[in-house]
Amino acid sequence: MSQVTAWQEEKLIGRLADWILRHRLVTPAVLLLEANKPFSFLGSQALWMLQPLLGPAIGHERVAVYARLLEDSTSVERLLECLELRRTIGQDAGRADDR
Asked: I need a labelling partner for 52 at 20 to 30 A (CA). Which of 9, 45, 58, 88 fits?
């Protein structure tokens, strides 16, 4: 398994943030990520353990990439920043549409 490059990691964070926004789960996601930020490494280890079960459903490589992402607590912080930025941009666009 190859390591994820910084560019791939940013792309993955962006896709995950887009998915969260599209499903209108920003508030629960932010609360969950903030509350569990110190435990992100444990979450990554849980993904590694669940990879044989999750792999056939969503792909073994995708599970591995998300597990590697959670191993680094700075990635969780970048995801939170990305969510906040995209939510702010979305709210500003909504206000512009109301005018």
From this structure: 9
Report yes or no: 63 and 12 within 8 Å, Cβ to Cβ.
no
- Could you tell me the pTM of the whole model? 0.76
Strands of the chain (E only): list them.
none
Q: How many CA atoms lie within 13 A of 79 on its CB side?
A: 27
Angle at alpha carbon of residue 68, lines to 66 and 72, rounded to 5°? 110
Pick from 80, 93, 73, 67: nearest CA to 4: 67
**Which amino acid is located at 70 in the chain?**
L
Report DSSP state, residue 69: H
Distance CA 44, CA 25 (A): 21
